[in-house]
Amino acid sequence: SGSGLERPQLVTYVQQALSYTLFDCKWLPRSARLLCLGSSARGTGLLQLYELQGGRLALLREIEKAKPIKCGTFGATSLQQRYLATGDFGGNLNIWNLEAPEIPVYSVKGHKEIINSIDGVGGLGIGEGAPEIVTGSRDGTVKVWDPRQKDTPVANMEPVQGENKRDCWTVAFGNAYNQDERVVCAGYDNGDIKLFDLKNMSLRWETNIKNGVCSVEFDRKDVYMNKLVATSLEGKFHVFNMRTQHPTKGFASVSEKVQKSTIWQVRHLPQNRDIFMTSGGAGSLHLWKYEYPAQRLKKDSEEAEMGLVGSVSLLQNVTLSTQPISSLDWSPDKKGLCVCGAFDQTVRVLIVTKLNKV
Amino acid sequence: SLPLRGVRVTSANIFCTDQYLKVERPPFLFEAVLFAPIDDANSTAKIGNGIIFFTLYKKEVAMWDSLTLAIADKEKLQYLRENAVLKAHERAKEETEAKKVTEKEHKKYALEATMRLEEAERRRIEDLKEKEQQKVTKELELWQKQQKDAEKQKRVQKERELHQKVEQLKETKKDKNNKTRIPNEGTSKARIKPTKGHGSCSMFSEEEQLPAPRSAATIKISFTPRVFPTALRESRIAEEEEWLCKQAEARRTSNADLSELEDLKEEEKNPDWLKDKGNKMFATGNYLAAVNAYNLAVRLNNKLPLLYLNRAACHLKLRNLHKAIEDSSKALELLTPPVPANENARVKAYVRRGTAFCQLELYVEGLQDYEAALKIDPKNKTIEKDAEKIRHLIQGTMQDS
């Protein structure tokens, strides 16, 4: 513990008011540039590329597209190309070369309704295996795409015939520790979390956390799956120990409640997988640290292995806005540097200090 | 000095003002009216050894004819006594007031001191934060510079690579007749991912190493069942359950007298079918027939809120305003508990009842219902406009009366 000033501080470095609704913000890897994705008042999509220049954000490029853009990722692109994959309100998945953004490098109308969430794996020099992009949509399906294969997804997780569809709100890749293994975790508005194994093409685990699932993320995509954080409506998030799967009880978890408002996003610090930040509907950011338990598993009465889960402690929190902070991204290149976007049409760049002392 | 006849005396028994001295310890009393005023604040009385030793300081240095004044006049004595008591009281008052003033000043001083300390502390923390901010800003600027330099380097390198490629192409063209030349390993480009194989173009070699796209497959899933289209919220689960139970019960209710309905066709005994019929007739403007359909449906099942809701709409069109109010109210009664699933129905019920009230010129009640509707659906512009109109009407009539 120690005095309050010894803990990490969340310092606002620069903020910029925008003239459109901001849905996602992402750092351009290997640079001091960031992208803002959103919807203009006219109902068109906007991509803005900013650069940090001496205490302010300088707009380098503005690109307008037909449909509002909901989400984007650099996860499946190489470091040389740095192509951006986006999901838009019309259900289209596009991959853009930001140096020549007039025509997408890849384009498919992947879903019948808005793509709520997107993730990429296999790029940026992280992990192994094919580059893949996963999209989750309001049409209730989760689809995995390979940029080398046009038009059809390489995996499709869809409801059985006649089933009432639920909104898929969030998707995340994980377990990509070699060329073959990969999982996709998806969260839905009815509280379902499902874990799909792409190597075996099967449903590996599912559970229901009693509140719509806003965001899921593995602490690292490219290692043998370790921890998964799922955030939800009504201020709750759950941390699952993904190392041990019990045959009936699944994965062990611990949950925390933070205020009453929706927890929109969770993002793990790229440089330390036990530190993560959650962003809230009341315009706040909370920085957490996970402590591992003394033992990570034990045997139950039938000799089956059961995971044990540790605890989460709050390192720091700050309230930046009265509107929800709906997007959050850590810089992969500078420890502690992060960008967040809120529904008050403001993008803020923050620096989290003293992370080395945690 | 005053001898004490074996009694114990404390300071409470001694009373002294500037010209009057009294020691009272029942049954003994000693009283003296002094010849001239003394400084009673500095005078002392020492009690001990069976006597009280008074040390009295004269106000004016002079010889006294005697210690005390003999006053024969009882009244005067009484007056003197009272005066003395008054004086003592006044003095006591002054003392307490003076004490209060000093206390206040002390408190003020203490408060100011603490404020100063807190201010200093706050400033210290702000300074630390400022320093932190500056440090962090400097670090960032340094890092930004590094990024820029790295980018520049990369660009230079790209150009070099391009140049090399062009050179290679020229060379391979030259060597068309000869065996194909293996490009010079020494000019291989720096890569972030180390490549195992070699090739003439970086793009292809990377692709060679990547596994092929996986063969397409589908996983079929099913969801934890949820009746409502809205997202699941833990705090609303109880309410939603209640609503669902009510709806389920309502469907099962059948409270009509079977004998009366024997001559009805099978479909006419189904409240849902009758409701649909009613809706169709409403749509074509046949309000009376619609009311009949709803009436029959209600006789079969009086727990379905939508029947009352739709019948209220018919009554509005037929200007049966009281019946419209009755039916809207019954619908609202059945639409509890309020959940997102029955929001639309509740809004309609409030609006219909509000309209009926207004047509009966009961504008205040009408406005109440419109505002209730607006509370559920704040974004509805039509309801907002109508509510405004009603407000103006009310203000207009108030001005007239």
UniProtKB/TrEMBL annotation, chain A:
It is found in: Dynein axonemal particle. InterPro entries: WD40/YVTN_repeat-like_dom_sf, WD40_repeat_dom_sf, WD40_rpt. PROSITE patterns: WD_REPEATS_2. Its main location: other. It holds the Pfam family WD40. The keyword ATP-binding does not apply. This is Dynein axonemal assembly factor 10. PANTHER family: MRNA EXPORT FACTOR AND BUB3. Gene3D superfamilies: YVTN repeat-like/Quinoprotein amine dehydrogenase. Key assembly factor specifically required for the stability of axonemal dynein heavy chains in cytoplasm. One of its GO terms (biological process) is apoptotic process. WD repeats lie at residues 133-146. GO terms for cellular component: dynein axonemal particle. Keywords: Apoptosis, Cytoplasm, Repeat, WD repeat.
From TrEMBL, chain B:
It is found in: Cell projection, Neuron projection; Dynein axonemal particle; Nucleus. Transmembrane segments: none annotated. Residues 1-68 form the CS domain. Residues 167-210 are annotated as: Disordered. GO terms for molecular function: nuclear estrogen receptor binding. It comes from the Eukaryota. Residues 167-178 have a biased composition (Basic and acidic residues). InterPro entries: CS_dom, CS_DYX1C1, Dynein_assembly_factor_4, HSP20-like_chaperone, TPR-like_helical_dom_sf, TPR_rpt. TPR repeats lie at residues 347-380. Its main location: other. CDD domains: p23_DYX1C1_like. GO terms for biological process: determination of left/right symmetry; epithelial cilium movement involved in extracellular fluid movement; heart development; inner dynein arm assembly; nervous system development; outer dynein arm assembly. One of its GO terms (cellular component) is extracellular region. Keywords: Cell projection, Cytoplasm, Neurogenesis, Nucleus, Repeat, TPR repeat. This is Dynein axonemal assembly factor 4. It comes from Mesitornis unicolor (brown roatelo).
